[in-house]
Write a structure and sequence with these properties.
With 202 residues, the protein is mainly β. The protein has a single domain, classed as Lipocalin (Beta Barrel). The chain has 3 helices and 11 strands, in the order H-E-E-E-E-E-E-H-E-E-E-H-E-E.
Length: 202
C-alpha cells in the first residue's frame, strides 16, 4: 500500500478515536444535585436541587471544544423549612410557575488544562435564572471515567463524565428582590455542582 493511501487511513482512525461523546445528565439513579447557600447576618439558608437534566458533548482529546447545556428544574429547589420553601417557589422570589428552568449553556472554554482523565477550564456561558440571561465564567473540573457507568448503574455499559463547579451569583443581577431582606436573605448565592453524565454504549 502506498504511503499516500496510508496517511488518510491514519487520519480517519484518529478522527474516529477522537470523536466527541454526548453525555446525558438526567441521572437514572436520581442523585445528581446542585447545592446552594445564602449566608446573611441573621440567617443562613442551605438547600439543594435534584431535578437536573441536559447534555454535554465532551472529547478528552479536544476538551476545549466542549459544548452543552445543564438544566435545573426550579421546582426541585428545596430547603429544610417548609415555609421558606413555599416562599422560595412563590411569585415574590423565584416564581417557579412562571420560570420553571434554571440553566447554564456553554459558549467557550479558556485556560484548558488536562492531566490524565481530569480537565479544568474557565467555562464561559449563559446562566439563565428568573427570566434573566447573564454571561458568566465558571471554573469547571471535568473528570472522564471510561467504562465506569456499570460501576454506578448496574446493567448499563458506557462512560461517565463528572462535572464539578463552585461559583457565586448575585440575586440582584437576576431581578430577585433587589436590595430587600438582606439581613435574612443574602444578596449573594453560593452554588456548588457535582453531577455525573452517562454516555451509554451497546
Amino acid at each position: 500500500m502506498k504511503l499516500t493511501h496510508i496517511i488518510p487511513l491514519i487520519s480517519l482512525a484518529t478522527a474516529v478515536y477522537a470523536a466527541p461523546q454526548s453525555f446525558d445528565f438526567k441521572d437514572p439513579k436520581g442523585v445528581n444535585n446542585a447545592v446552594f447557600k445564602l449566608d446573611a447576618p441573621l440567617e443562613s439558608i442551605n438547600g439543594s436541587a435534584s431535578g437536573i437534566s441536559g447534555t454535554v458533548s465532551f472529547d478528552l482529546e479536544n476538551p476545549a471544544a466542549t459544548t452543552g447545556k445543564i438544566v435545573v428544574a426550579a421546582e426541585s429547589l428545596t430547603v429544610p423549612n417548609p415555609m421558606q420553601k413555599e416562599h422560595l417557589h412563590g411569585a415574590n422570589w423565584l416564581d417557579v410557575a412562571k420560570y420553571p428552568e434554571i440553566s447554564f449553556e456553554t459558549k467557550s472554554l479558556a485556560n484548558v488544562k488536562t492531566d490524565g482523565n481530569v480537565t479544568t477550564a474557565d467555562v464561559t456561558g449563559t446562566f439563565s435564572l428568573h427570566g434573566v440571561a447573564k454571561e458568566i465564567t465558571v471554573l469547571v473540573k471535568f473528570t472522564y471515567l471510561k467504562d465506569k457507568l456499570a460501576s454506578r448503574v448496574p446493567n448499563l455499559k458506557g462512560d461517565l463524565l463528572v462535572i464539578r463547579a463552585n461559583f457565586v451569583i448575585n440575586r440582584e443581577d437576576f431581578n430577585i428582590n433587589k436590595g430587600q431582606y438582606e439581613d435574612k436573605v443574602s444578596p449573594t448565592i453560593d452554588l456548588s455542582l457535582s453531577i455525573a453524565g452517562a454516555a451509554i454504549t451497546k
